[in-house]
Design brief:
The complex is a heterodimer of chains A (about 140) and B (about 190). With about 140 residues, chain A is mainly alpha-helical. Chain A has helices at about 5-20, 30-40, 50-70, 90-105, 110-135. The termini of chain B are far apart. Chain B is elongated and about 60 Å long. The chains are: A mainly alpha (about 140), B mainly alpha (about 190).
Chain lengths: ~140, ~190
């Protein structure tokens, strides 16, 4: 095949291929992809800063709880709990721990905190996500 | 509206704004779908593979090397997924007709010039469909997306010289098929 023929072949192929255009996927293709992106947070490419923070919190919160008890003159252990647990019935120890937690959580700040978290979650799911998706 | 580069949206997605990814999907969906469709020859499968390619690219966006273009990267993903799908389907991966035939370029060009654009498009699609999946990929990337040979080699994991040889063969085969189709069409009209 001569160079001229090759050039003609190249030119006409380019022209015809441009004319024939690209195939189009379904109208809601982008929407479908973005729905899957929204539904699977495991796909998120950005670093979710949660892991290290959660581990630290899981360790620090109990420590902070005991320090707080100690600093405020309370015992490190719930009232009635002795370190010599082997001579106490385990059910009683459990009961005392639960009672202590219930008393600590009865402050009005706890239900208020829970209500705030639920409100923020609802705001994110119902308003923010729909707004960001339709943008 | 100003035209923002792909890198801008990638950066935004990586900063946590995943809705910016919609812009990248919107920008590249036609080419990604076309590549999948030409290889798989089935709209539903092509749509599924194209969606998978975008999801895969999304979840690996952090690994995306900024020294190449996002389009090159997503085309490579869709190409690999389509090849896997073809293997899964156990489909014919080579063109049916491997014989070299003499080309009557002038005759084919003359006939094509006389056709309406819609008919030309229809016959080109028919001729393309008879090529092997890699020939179709090369033709699509080179002539429709105007990609350089080096980038096509990167997408298809072939050497540049191999791309050139295959492209040349694909071009000739496309014209030969087109010539046959036009001849048959004229015969059926007579």
């Amino acid at each position: 095949m001569s160079k001229q023929q090759n050039n003609d072949l190249d030119k006409s192929t380019r022209q015809w291929m441009h004319e024939s255009g690209l195939e189009k996927p379904s109208m809601d293709f982008t929407k479908q992809v973005m729905e899957q992106v929204e539904e699977k947070p495991s796909l998120y490419p950005y670093k979710r800063g949660g892991n290290l923070f959660n581990i630290l919190m899981a360790v620090l919160i109990p420590i902070a709880y005991f320090i707080y008890n100690y600093m405020t003159g309370g015992s490190l252990l719930p009232v009635g709990v002795s370190l010599q647990t082997e001579i106490q019935p385990y059910v009683r120890v459990f009961q005392l721990v639960v009672e202590k937690l219930a008393i600590d959580m009865s402050t009005p700040l706890v239900p208020l905190g829970i209500i705030a978290i639920v409100a923020l979650l609802a705001f994110d799911r119902l308003i923010l996500r729909s707004v960001s998706f339709n943008r | 509206m100003s035209y923002l580069k792909d890198e801008h949206y990638i950066e935004r997605v990586l900063q946590g704004d995943h809705s910016s990814y919609a812009m990248l999907v919107e920008r590249h969906k036609d080419m990604v779908f076309t590549l999948a469709y030409r290889m798989l020859k089935n709209r539903e499968e092509a749509e599924e593979v194209a969606q998978d390619a975008f999801l895969k690219a999304y979840s690996s966006l952090k690994k995306f090397r900024k020294d190449s273009r996002f389009s090159t990267w997503i085309y490579r993903i869709v190409y690999n997924l389509s090849v896997s799908q073809l293997r899964k389907n156990n489909k014919q991966m080579q063109s049916l007709d491997d014989t070299e035939r003499p080309l009557d370029l002038e005759d084919t060009h003359e006939k094509m010039d006389r056709l309406e654009q819609d008919d030309r498009k229809k016959f080109i699609e028919q001729a393309l469909a008879s090529l092997s999946y890699d020939e179709q990929t090369l033709i699509t990337l080179y002539y429709q997306d105007d990609l350089p040979v080096g980038e096509i080699a990167d997408i298809t994991q072939m050497t540049s010289s191999n791309v050139k040889v295959k492209l040349h063969r694909a071009r000739k085969r496309l014209h030969a098929q087109l010539g046959d189709i036009l001849k048959q069409e004229i015969n059926s009209l007579l």
